[in-house]
Write a structure and sequence with these properties.
This protein is α/β, with parallel strands linked by helices. The protein has helices at 8-18, 24-42, 78-88, 135-146, 161-170, 198-203, and strands at 2-3, 48-54, 59-65, 69-75, 93-94, 96-101, 108-114, 123-127, 130-131, 151-159, 175-181, 184-185, 191-192.
Length: 206
């Protein structure tokens, strides 16, 4: 599990995101910027395969990703992270997983899922800005496993210790990459200090 909150560039962008005065267009940009910065650490352990290639000078050995990549943004807030990842991984396919949190039970409810072919053989990155209670992330990963996904990763901007603990308990095989681990959850299940409702702030639906 990776945490980059002390890196100056991550810290700067996170501080801007946390600000209540950050307008939606800037919020979206900062989320996308952080997502692009997270691509390298999130993919640092992917397997590769050797391939002979010919440069303008001579033949050499190159290293290509061994498996295709599928991005799975959890709707709707995960779309902003997906944009950043897709800019650096344009060959990736994009699935969509729609989950809404029931504000009374705090449990996720699935309302949409659409997966490309080859889920079982791909490196699958589940993307969501926030890992709060861990319910949505765990449910999405469980659903992906039921549909054949084997090589799963979870990427978020901000995580709570409670969410991380749940994800470790439910899916210990999934690698987690996050930009910051916050203090915890409030009585409504929101991360503190957090970012607020990331979906509302991304799409201006406050």
């Amino acid at each position: 599990m990776s945490d980059f909150s002390k890196h100056p560039l991550f810290a700067d962008r996170l501080a801007r995101l946390r600000s209540q005065g950050c307008p939606p267009q800037e919020f979206r940009k900062h989320v996308t910027d952080i997502a692009k910065l997270m691509v390298l650490p999130a993919t640092s352990e992917l397997p590769t395969r050797q391939q002979k290639i010919t440069t303008p000078i001579q033949e050499t050995t190159g290293y290509l990703l061994a498996r295709p990549v599928i991005l799975v943004p959890i709707l709707r807030a995960g779309l902003a992270i997906s944009e950043g990842f897709h800019q650096l991984l344009p060959e990736a396919s994009i699935a969509h997983y729609g989950l809404a949190r029931n504000e009374k039970t705090l449990e996720p409810e699935v309302y949409y899922e659409k997966f490309p072919a080859g889920l079982h053989e791909a490196e699958v990155f589940v993307l969501d800005p926030m890992l709060a209670t861990g319910g949505s992330a765990s449910a999405a990963i469980s659903g992906l496993k039921e549909n054949g996904a084997q090589y799963l990763h979870f990427v978020c901007l901000v995580a709570s210790p409670e969410g991380l603990e749940r994800l470790r308990g439910d899916h210990p095989d999934v690698r987690v990459t996050c930009a910051a681990i916050d203090d915890g959850l409030n009585e409504k299940g929101y991360i503190i200090p957090g970012l607020g409702d990331a979906g509302d702030r991304i799409f201006g639906t406050l």
